[in-house]
Design a protein that fits this description.
Helix content: 40-55%
Number of strands: 12
Radius of gyration: 22 Å
Shape: globular
Strand content: 5-15%
Distance between the termini: 43 Å
Number of helices: 18
Largest sheet: 6 strands, mixed
Structural class: alpha/beta
Order of helices and strands: HEHEHEHHEEEHHHEHHHHEHEEEHHHEHH
Oligomer: single chain
Length: 443
């Protein structure tokens, strides 16, 4: 199924905007209709409530180009960091509510399943490369994963070499700790730090309250043979602490200053001020691309989250997707179809698909262009070598906004004073907070 092709001027303008913004953007979906429609007979409209503030610029430009090409109005509203669920509840109560929104895995689905249009007979479902990327409510296809992403610890191979090490020297937490602390001891002479800043404001804290927090959840689920729980035990929180202590005590920033935020870890890494930077495959274009806002690094790779668990030499990267797209079943039929056609255009138009995948990440759709993302290639290499994948079980954090906010608050207290008593506050937020928020979310 193909969409209306962008004109060269439109796609060039969009490409420039995307490169300037330099973060991950992809989309997925389709309706049962072919193409993106014509200006003359455009019907319905699209209202997308975007989850990630860092993608707002790209989405606004993409919406503009699509509207110019088809005559279909596309409105994009971006929720503030950490406020998506609150914003979604507010917007869904309005007469002009989102037609396209995001559901945070099974936990989010529990709250929004009645609003999710069944995509089971739509073309978008047929376009998926695997039904594993569909979020189901029984037999109903309620949402669709729109990107395949990987995250871990990005590192600069050239700086690592200048510090006297190679990637082969890091196969465990003990190895990572040895290298990081040695770099810290020699940082004045080397001219760079081990890690970038771990800012705890909304622009950065998601890396630690979700992605890093995946570690203790994943290993506990794996050890207990479960895939969900109403009461996490926190068995592997000491391993979480291992990595967190390494981050905050081996960067150029005073740990007590992290709560205030205002740091730019990507810029620090892009300017080669640190060897290691926790983030994901969506950073590939920003760090390696050329043009405005790009750093042009050509010596990057990604290593797994080593944290001190047995057998971690066989770990691979974290792979999956955090959010799924859903179409509002309570929207008008015309708006639903317009939304499905907009999604279809994104994943099937050859030029748009090629550009988006080159800039950001892989899309799990048959007609989507093949990814050229080096961090995703790293993930594939680990898998090919028999290493285990760490899936995104952070999706199961209950009542996510409230749960994560409490976790960040406790971590900020610990950062200001790294005492055992303050780490107990982190454990309380992680364990007791889970049970409390699970009960709140499941009534």
């Amino acid at each position: 199924m193909g969409g209306t092709n962008m004109n060269k001027k439109g796609i060039a303008a969009l490409g420039l905007s995307l490169m300037m913004a330099g973060t991950m953007l992809t989309g997925c979906g389709s309706g049962d209709s072919d193409g993106a429609g014509k200006k003359a007979d455009a019907k319905g409209s699209v209202y997308y409530l975007n989850f990630k503030p860092e993608q707002d610029t790209q989405w606004q430009e993409l919406a503009k180009v699509y509207t110019e090409e088809t005559g279909v109005d596309v409105t994009v509203v971006t929720a503030a960091a950490g406020q998506y669920e609150t914003t979604l509840k507010s917007e869904m109560g309005k007469s002009e509510s989102p037609t396209l929104f995001q559901v945070n895995g099974p936990v989010g689905l529990a709250s929004w399943k009645d609003y999710c249009y069944d995509l089971g007979s739509s073309q978008v479902y047929k376009e998926l490369t695997s039904e594993d990327f569909a979020l189901k409510d029984g037999d109903k296809v309620a949402g669709i994963g729109y990107v395949i992403e990987s995250y871990g610890i990005i590192y600069n191979k050239e700086l690592l070499s200048k510090a006297g090490y190679t990637e082969d020297d890091i196969n465990s937490f003990a190895d990572l700790k040895k290298v990081a602390e040695d770099i810290t001891a020699k940082s004045d002479k080397l001219g760079f730090s081990a890690f970038t800043s771990a800012g705890m404001d909304g622009s950065s804290d998601w890396r630690f309250k979700t992605h890093l927090a995946n570690l203790p959840i994943y290993y506990e689920y794996k050890a207990d043979g479960i895939d969900t729980t109403d009461a996490i035990k926190g068995t592997y929180l000491d391993n979480y602490k291992n990595v967190w202590d390494l981050y905050i005590n081996n960067s150029a920033v005073n740990p007590a200053d992290l709560a205030a935020g205002g740091f730019d870890a990507a810029d620090e890494f892009g300017k080669e001020q640190a060897v290691f930077y926790q983030n994901g495959s969506w950073e590939w274009a920003k760090l390696t691309g050329t043009g405005d806002g790009q750093y042009g690094l050509d010596n990057l790779s990604m290593t797994p989250f080593y944290c001190g668990v047995a057998g971690e030499a066989h770990a691979g990267l974290n792979c999956g997707t955090e959010n799924c797209w859903a179409v509002n079943a309570k929207a008008s039929e015309e708006d639903i179809q317009a939304t499905l056609e907009f999604m279809n255009w994104m994943v099937t138009d050859p030029e748009v698909s090629r550009m988006l995948v080159d800039e950001f990440a892989a899309m799990p759709y048959k007609q989507a262009a093949e990814s050229t993302n080096g961090f995703l290639a790293d993930a594939n290499d680990y898998t090919t070598n028999g290493n285990y994948i760490m899936p995104w079980v952070t999706n199961f954090q209950p009542n996510v906004d409230a749960y994560r906010a409490a976790l960040v608050s406790a971590m900020n207290q610990y950062d200001a004073d790294q005492s055992d008593a303050n780490w107990e506050l982190v454990k309380t937020a992680f364990v007791d907070g889970w049970a409390t928020q699970y009960a709140a979310a499941n009534g």
